[in-house]
Amino acid sequence: MATAGLDDDSLQQLRSRATQLLLKEDWKESGAVDLSEWVLAGFSGKCPDLAEHVGPVEVRRSSHGGRGVFAVKNIDAGATLLISKAVAIGRGVITDAADSCEKMVVWKDFVDKVLDAAEKCPKTASLIYTLSTGEEPEDELPVPDIAQFKQEAEEPDDGTAAATESAPEVTLDVDKILKLLDVNCLTEDAAPSSNLLGSNGVVNCGVGLWVLLAFINHSCHPNARRTHVGDHAIVHASRDIKAGEEITFAYFDVLTPVGRRREAARAWGFECQCDRCRFEAGDAILGQELARLENELVNGGGDMGALVVRLEEKMRKSMVKERRKAFLRASFWGAYSALFGSDKLVRKWGRRVPGEAAVAESVAGAIGGNESVLRAMLRGAGNGDGCGNRLEVEDKVVRIGRATYGKVVKRQAMRALFKLTLDADSNKSL
Ligand SMILES: C[S@@+](CC[C@H](N)C(=O)[O-])C[C@H]1O[C@@H](n2cnc3c(N)ncnc32)[C@H](O)[C@@H]1O
């Protein structure tokens, strides 16, 4: 392979390109499996806009008062939990420099489509009304039965279908719908397609409403991720999930310190009550030092290697347990990435911090699969930083890969990527 002499940036680009290519190839195949097996089946339902595949989950009362989605049996990382077709999506391809006016056009188009879908289908309208507007006391909101979201049984051929189609028009409460869209819409930024498009200053701007997904709460210690294929959102487990555990995904970037995350949650209109936030914001012993480190990280410019060493030493002296160490490493991921991304910093501090693959493995335990963590795992493994023998490392890479992309990433594809990384590194050191 002609990779000898590549600098770190080029190697990084090569790896992310390889990830994209593998993903793209894999989507074609897995799309055929997922879409034919689950999604297309939904189109035989009475109300095609509501085609859903609901896995082993149900809606229950969440610990912070509102409703949430819970696993009803053990689920392995990578397994598909839900596939849901959007009630409506507004999309636009706009440049980074687009003014808010262009975004408003996308939003208006989206709102019109939601209203249209609700007007045409009374069941869509009633499901939309189960969502929170953000104004009701959350613990008073009724918990919907999961059966409401499941694909409806094939209709008997007795003419009732025609009767349903001509069901009387519903009067829509537009004001209420606008409020609940504010709380429950999701953007498509988890879609691989947006990563591919994002490279040349073009932003794939997509906003949509997936009713069942809107019951999934946020956590900074999430156990699920979503990807998008066309109008379908696919939610998969990004960590192993136990029966009875709440399914959560990240509404915003959780590879940041607690202060930043709190700001992001407030912008969404809530105070995050996940266990990671409760620990990081509530630990009196670590609190002050964490606030200082966060300040340094956010202001930038300092020696990120020194910051990581201080954090690791503080955690060692305070006897922070592994699970919480993983939370804090995830919070200061930016500093770890800067350290491991610089040969100079690695030479200066490398012996005083755990290896890159070990940090990546720890962080994946806290936030589940994630592209940036997977890349670090690959790079750390390629540098042979001692997180096991070749087979053990390969296994870890495949596991984080599946947790990141769901079952669409095949073992073979991850092996190819892993080999590419090792070959590139050994050629580089020639
Ligand atoms: C898309 S809805 C999720 C479903 C919502 N819990 C319900 O009962 O309708 C988003 C809202 O759920 C609540 N929520 C989600 N994640 C939360 C968290 N980690 N901590 C506190 N509230 C949260 C907030 O009120 C937020 O505005």
Automatic annotation (TrEMBL):
<dbReference type="Pfam" id="PF00856">
    <property type="entry name" value="SET"/>
</dbReference>
<feature type="domain" description="SET">
    <location>
        <begin position="55"/>
        <end position="252"/>
    </location>
</feature>
<dbReference type="InterPro" id="IPR001214">
    <property type="entry name" value="SET_dom"/>
</dbReference>
<protein>
    <recommendedName>
        <fullName>SET domain-containing protein</fullName>
    </recommendedName>
</protein>
<dbReference type="InterPro" id="IPR053209">
    <property type="entry name" value="Gramillin-biosynth_MTr"/>
</dbReference>
<dbReference type="InterPro" id="IPR046341">
    <property type="entry name" value="SET_dom_sf"/>
</dbReference>
